[in-house]
Amino acid sequence: MSTRHDPGQSGAVTDFSERMSYSDYLHLERVLDAQEPLSGSPDELLFIIQHQTSELWMKLAVHEISSAMEAIREDRLEPAFKMLTRVARIFEQLNSAWDVLRTMTPSEYTSFRAALGQSSGFQSWQYRAIEFLAGNRNLALLAPHAHDGEITARLEAILARPSLYDEAIRLLQRKGFDTGEETERSDWRQQRIESDAVLAAWKAVYLEPERHWMLYELAEKLVDFEDYFRRWRFNHVTTVERIIGFKRGTGGTAGVTYLRRMLEVELFPELWKVRTEL
Q1: pTM attached to this predicted model
Q2: Gyration radius of the chain's alpha carbons
Q3: Tens digit of pLDDT for each residue in 154-200?
Q4: Contacts for 242 with CB less than 8 Å, ≥ 6 apart
Q5: What pLDDT was estimated at residue 205?
Q6: Confidence of residue 255 (pLDDT cuts 50, 70, 90)
Q7: CA nearest 87: which of 125, 53, 126, 61?
Q8: What is residue 245's predicted lDDT score, i.e. its pLDDT?
Q9: CB 134 within 8 A of CB 69
Q10: What does CATH list as the number for 42-277?
């Protein structure tokens, strides 16, 4: 004969009339009321929640990347390693989100697609912030945010400072490596150009990892991050193709064709090319 357990009898707090509860702490009334489907389709809720949870994970990624950059700037590499590991795992979670969205069929998506208007994930300012923070500084991608002065100011503030990869290169400089013209670089807003000197510096690190262990470890943390980031982009492409084929995106982009071009973008190019050099 089974008996039902009363958690209150073992000391669990059950009266929250004058205490902060789990729901209070997380402001769940705001989080769970933020889903407002615009169509009568039962599948629209999946679409909304998938994108909202992705934005929450991206908020954490922006925080962790920014913190890692500060730590690298201050030569606190062990904390930076932990933060970059967390960023890679965040993108692992973001990858899993595509698995859920892929359960949606083309017919189900079509039932509410018109309700989206011109809204599109292409317009995610947090995704743009992640790209800018990592080092992909395509200024043309500021345009979708020009209507919002506050968001534009946030993105411009990121562009005004060195990127994550810039901080890694500056660390190479502080450790005595020749990084060529990167030494004089100060216009952080512009996209950096690949450098043979930076490639040679990373090659020296990889040839003697025991001697340059901290730089070696940083390089691998950056590659790990970009590895998961690339997988996220690839899964994005395949999910979109599975659901809408080669139709244009709701935001007017070329859809799958545009997303495939994004697969060619490298955040840390010299760290990938050094593999061929070794």
Answers
A1: 0.91
A2: 22
A3: 999 999 999 999 999 999 999 999 999 998 889 999 999 999 999 99
A4: 102
A5: 98
A6: low
A7: 61
A8: 79
A9: no
A10: 1.20.58.480
pLDDT of residue 238: 84
C-alpha 54: how far from chain center: 9
Query: How many CB atoms are located within 10 Å of the residue 66 CB?
Result: 16
Question: 166: closest CA among 26, 259, 69?
Answer: 69
Whether the pLDDT of residue 249 is over 90: the answer is no
- How many CA atoms within 13 Å lie on the side-chain side of 139? 9
